[in-house]
Design goal:
This protein has about 280 residues and is of the alpha/beta class. It folds into 2 domains: about 130 residues, Rossmann fold; about 140 residues, no CATH class. Helices cover about 60% and strands about 10% of the residues. Strands 2-1-3-4-5 form a 5-stranded parallel sheet, sandwiched between helices. Helix 1 links the parallel strand 1 and strand 2. The protein is elongated.
Length: about 280
């Protein structure tokens, strides 16, 4: 990650640079020195994180953050401050500050805050990738493709695409199982054993079941991330309780947010049972 430091005290700048680079937290790509910060330079360098002093002679840190936000900066902002006034702190947060670090500078606190920001950036990148994965331009779909999508097999593939599972090896196994059950009118999952099905359809049933489990887990993770970003997303609301247990999806979301240590559990039978219902629609 690239850092830019807006601070009028050169000793603080040097201290921050040393902490960031000696702890392999990133690279300091620039600083304001003891002069008024050059906001155009900051925008040109496009740092991932900007560390800003709250109180400076010619411009305060809140103005810096607010102006950079208005200019289109997507950087994370860390405010460095001795100020403890709650109203001023709230003003800074409203301007776009992500974290506060108190003066005098503490190495442990800086490392903790920067590591939190790194996790936040990684999560946002993951969500962005998932959002792109889920975006489907239905306006470009031809009539023939729309008709073909109505076949049971195409419905399955469409759903797995929406869940971001189509690249998983286990997706083909899932389609094979669903097609077998559908063709043989075996849609009552209480009477079905996944292990037995894998024995019927594969020479290596254990590997097949493991591939399916990994694929379903991937779909659950993608759906939970989508729910974190937009709880009312159509894909999330449609599949979170039909293909999965909503309680387990919620557990997965809390696990991804770091709110709990136990991950959500998948249920392959429920997943396949839900797919069979969609095949009939």
């Amino acid at each position: 990650m690239n850092f830019y430091i807006v601070e009028d005290d050169l000793s603080v700048i040097n201290n921050l640079e040393d902490i960031i680079e000696s702890n392999n937290l990133g690279v300091v790509c620039g600083n304001s020195g003891d002069k008024t910060p050059d906001l155009a330079e900051i925008m040109d360098l496009s740092p991932d994180v900007v560390l800003v002093d709250f109180l400076m002679p010619n411009i305060d840190g809140v103005q810096v953050v607010s102006t950079l936000r208005d200019m289109g900066s997507t950087a994370k902002f860390i405010m460095i401050s001795q100020v403890s006034n709650k109203k001023l702190i709230m003003k800074a947060y409203n301007a776009g500050v992500d974290f506060f670090i108190s003066k005098p500078i503490n190495v442990i606190e800086i490392k903790r805050v920067i590591e939190n920001i790194m996790r936040q950036i990684q999560m946002e990148q993951t969500l962005s990738n998932i959002r792109k994965m889920f975006q489907i331009d239905t306006s470009s779909v031809s009539d023939s493709v729309r008709e073909d999508k109505e076949s049971p097999g195409r419905k399955l593939q469409y759903i797995l695409n929406q869940l971001g599972m189509s690249g998983e090896k286990g997706s083909k196994d899932i389609i094979m199982i669903c097609q077998y059950l559908y063709d043989n009118d075996k849609t009552n999952m209480t009477e079905i054993n996944i292990g037995k099905l894998c024995e019927i359809l594969s020479d290596n049933p254990k590997s097949m079941e493991q591939r399916i489990r990994r694929a379903v887990a991937k779909g659950m993770s993608n759906l939970a991330n989508l729910g974190i970003e937009d709880f009312m997303n159509e894909t999330f609301t449609r599949y979170s309780s039909t293909l999965f247990s909503f309680e387990e999806i919620k557990a997965k979301m809390d696990f991804l947010r770091g709110k709990r240590s136990v991950d959500g559990k998948i249920n392959i039978k429920k997943f396949i049972s839900g797919l069979l219902i969609f095949m009939d629609q």
